Amino acid sequence: MLPVDLLKEVALSQRADLNTRTQGLERKELEHFPVLKSHSLIISGIRRCGKSTLLVQLMKSRYPTAFYLNFEDPRLYGFTVEDFQKIDRLVKEGKHTELLFDEIQVVAGWERYIRQKLDQGNHQIVITGSNASLLSKELGTKLTGRHITKELFPFSYGQFCAIKELPKSPESTSDYLQKGGFPEYIKSEKTELLHQLFDDLLLRDITVRYGVRDFRSLQHLAMYLVSNVSKLVSGNNLRKTLEIKATSTVMEYFSHLEESWLFFFIPKFSYSKKKQLINPKKVYAIDTGLVSANSRSFSEDQGRKFENMVFLHFRKKYQEIYYFSDKQECDFVLCDRNGPVSLVQVCVKLNPDNLNRELDGLWEAMMFFDKKESLLVTLSQEDEFYNAGRRVFVVPFHKLKD
């Protein structure tokens, strides 16, 4: 437990620090954030993607008198659920009706306090967290039906162009492909920031949080994945390749890496859940700049990184994405709650050697899902192809809707 005077001092100093920060580029995500006293707003995303800056924008635009507290402040080590009673005292003293809590998931039992405040019905609550699974597990118990969750990613291509004052073009696409969207890196372009972020995610968000004993194996796995984005991976094969003791350990690391937002693992499409589980998954990283900075792949494979970038573009709109593979492969099957919506193939540059292969993957998927249209994303080419009443639109990345 902590003394109330310390909590007050920390809250005041954190608020003063936020007030000195610049707002930066306004995130368009703000337009879609609801204001509801009956529900808490959960903003979840990887470290350093801009959640704190977003809170600054929220405070200045909507909640100028909000109570704010970041629970990862070292001065709050030892904070327990009982200390929320002292937070209540500070909230009442300041007559705060809006509560903004950053990284609250580090406090065991935090969801009980939030539920209590929601039941009182006189507070608007915004929470941020950098661990997707930890938040979702807790929200599924005490906050069922009382929360709205929004994901926050590093800057999109459109936001990147706005910050850099660049026109949307193949040239700026290539620039974004190399640098990615982490706000601090875009401003400074100091590669060590992305090195440090990668290490912090492995140490703080995984090793410490989950009590991983074999950090070296986790590190080797993460380095392998970041060097092989857009490729198929399986727990059994990587167990052999990296000499990890058990396949179950690899799968456990996969889960931790995904929960920390560092990687995404998308399954092969099948109406059988069992087949989805047993087939290899394709791996994608949260940011192509993070890949550029940390990959140990000496052969610069722009095609795989380009596919990763296209995946991220669509992942911001669709939580459920698969790859399709039968005789040929289609990179992405985008799904909503009703099932498959769109089919997407990715190729940096179409040429006589790869054209038939890329189109055959789409034609096969279109037949399987009975779709009349599909999308093929390139770096700069634009075209259309027809086959048996079906049409493929070839669109350069910079012309996709942000």
TrEMBL record:
UniProt cross-references to InterPro entries, sorted A to Z: AAA_14, DUF4143, P-loop_NTPase
Annotated ranges, domain DUF4143: 204-347
Pfam families xrefs: AAA_14, DUF4143
Domain annotation AAA: ranges: 39-161
Protein name in the entry: AAA+ ATPase domain-containing protein
